[in-house]
Each structure stands twice: as structure tokens, then as C-alpha cells.
Amino acid sequence: MTPTPFVGRQRELTWLLERLQGQASQLLVLHGRRRIGKTRLVREAFERLGDDHALYYLATLKNATLQRRELQQLLAAKTGDPLLARHPFDEWEALLTYLVRQHPRLVLALDEFPYLVTADPAFASVLQKVWDEHARTTGVRWIVLGSQVTAMERVLDHDSPLYGRRTGAWHLQPLGFDDLCAYSGLEGLEALRYYGFAGGIPFYWEALGFEGYTADIRKAALAPGSLLYDEGGFLVREELRQPREYFSLLHLLARGPRALGDLCGELGIGKHIAGKYLSVLQGLHVLERQVPITRVGTRSAGLYAMTDPFLRFWFRFVFPYKTSLEMGAHEVAEQRMEAEGFDHLATVYEDVALERLAQRAAAEGRPLFGKGRWWLNDKGRQYQINGVLLAEGETWVLEAKIGGRVKPARLEAAVAALREDAHACGVELGKIRCFAFEAQRRFEGEELVLGGQAG
What domains are defined for the chain? Predict the structure, then answer.
């Protein structure tokens, strides 16, 4: 595959370069889910700094002795230091201390840091000791990277040996829809279909030719042995030792947000057990619990929703059809993709539309203090607004339609119900502005003027 062009991440790159180019010692932490682009970001920074002054080391599932030996060999090749080349260090403390004293200006990136700790549970404490006693005043610049969500949160926890030592940390988020458009050269609904599969994960973009959607997906994810065929299951199993119940939950949630009671009824388990599973998945940032924006911060019943387009796609169109796919019968999954494609993209488009609207608000100089969705069941009538932005003195609402047309009368009724609900909840909306997004006609959205919306 061709390496991903560097798109997006300008804020992260600026932050990283500012710290690596300074004179102060730095112990930086970069974390985020696997495939999200941590290594690509570091390598881009190294190219700007000059590779002669930086070393990247990827830890693997070797024992501590082999890890240390491999790192020392890379250091020897980078620095030309004869002692590093000839004298094996038997302890991490000795190697790191030598590195501080002899090569303090070498930028060192330790990727998959949890593997180093797995091989030697004392490694984080050793790093802390070397930092405290030797490194923090010498101008060293070290970067710790990691993908395993649970393990990296332990690194950042107040009980971690590195707590209070790190000089900066950045949790990398998926890239946005605009970044995929810049990468692929596509736009509008065509780009959205690919975004509904790959989300904002640049590694997944590399698996796509962006020349024909169905053929691209078949090649990337529907054939046994293809790059992403087992990816969804791998991401879950990497974090969870007993993934069966989690797989069942994700299979149900891939079709859309669900209430706790609905999930319990489908799986035949109690709310306490289901709540525990859902809490774990929330902690892994796989799920989020959504409540109407007028009830944020309350104990109002909410809906559980998957946060990642790729995992939604994989658990909806790959996981249920593994038996057929193993036999080479990809047509079953492709037919389901065709039949349910717009339904899958509906939530994706709502997210993209809400982000586009937030960008418009920022361009108009309107700081936001709330963003989300709203719905209400009232006396047998159901109201829903796909996206709501709360700004000073104004509220912006949107309706997003992936295949149809926005109906102004229905949106106007929903806005009236929103205003009543907000008043009952003590939420001030101010002037309300309404926007229509239609993926097949006006992808970027258009402001509507509805009777009575101004408030």
C-alpha cells in the first residue's frame, strides 16, 4: 500500500514540534486507538526535525532482554556510539541513564509502550527514576506512544509512575470527513459512502482505491485474508478477554442507538449485567450514552450508540455474514450493504452535518457550549431533531436526510416541542435558526426560515 499522505493533524503536529524543538526536557504521551495515525504523526515530526536527530522504536511482544537488545542496536546504528555497539546493557536503568548522559538531544519515541511494561512490569518505574534523577534537567525529549486504551489510561492515571512527570499528552481522535475528502479527491455523497465504511482512520483509507465502492469494500473487508476482514473483532478482542457478550451487544447497536431495556430484552440478560458490559465499552470509547440535549447532566434515560463508523459497518455487514464469507459468497453481504446502505449512512451524515454546522458557527464567531441531539415522546407523539448547537443567545438545529427531503412543517413542529421541553428543563435557547441538509441535493446544508422559529 502507498503510505498515507499527511492530511489533517496540523494542530497536533504544531504542538509536537514546538515541544521537540525547544530546550526544555520533554516526556510526552501520544495515545489513541490502533490505526489512528500516532506513528504517522511522529514520523512527520521527525522528518521536519531531521531524522539524524530522532529514533523511533516499535516495541513488540518480546521479553525484556530482547527488547532492550533491539533498542540498543538501533541506538548504536543511529549514534555511531562504539560503546552502544559493543557493550550490552543488562538493565533498563543503565541503558536509559547512559542515553541521557551521552546523547541527551536525541529524540526517542517508544511506540506500543504497554508491551515494554508487559515484558518488564518495572519499566515504568525505572523510566520515572531515570527521569527524576537524570533526565528532567538535561533537555532530553522522549515520546511514549500506545494504542491499548485500558493500558494507556493506566499510564495517564494518577497512580502511574509517570503521573506528574509527563510534560504533555495528546489523545488523538479520528480524522474528519473533510480530511477523507482531501485524501481521496471525492466529495459529497460519494465520499460519505467511503467515510461510512472507513471513518476517520487513515490506515483504512490506504486499503481503498476510491474507484468503485462495492469492489473496494469487497477487496478490503469481505474476503477471508483481506486487510480488514477480521479488523473489527481484533480491535475488541485486543481489549477484552471474554468478548462474546460484547460482540452480541455491538451487533445489535450496529443497526442504530438502542435503550438499555431493548438490549436486555434482545440478549435475555439483566440490566445490571448489561450495564456492566456497556460501561466497559464506554470506557474503551467504542460506545457513548446519548441523552436529549435539554437533559444533559441529568439521570434521564438515554440511548447507547456506537461512535465509530467502521465498527458500525463491520458489526453490521461483515460479522453477521462470516459463514457465507468464509465460503467465498460475498454476494450476501453486498446485497445487505445495498439494501441497508442509506440506513447505515443516516447517522454518519447526521454527524457530518453537525460538524459542518459547528464549523459555520465558528466562522461566524459564535462560541458553542453544547452540541448533541434531541428527541421527545409526548402523549403518543414523537419528535426528533438530528442535531442541536447551543451558542450564546442562539440555538441552531438541523435536520439531515440521506435519501429524502427535509419537511419544513415537521421540523417546525419539532422546534416548537423543543422550545417547550427546554423551558420545562430550565434551558435557555434564545433565537432558533434551522438548517436543512440533504445528501443528494444540498450536501452542505441550507438555512431555512420557518414561521415562529425566532422565539
Answer: 10-171 (3.40.50.300), 177-349 (1.10.10.10), 353-448 (3.40.1350)
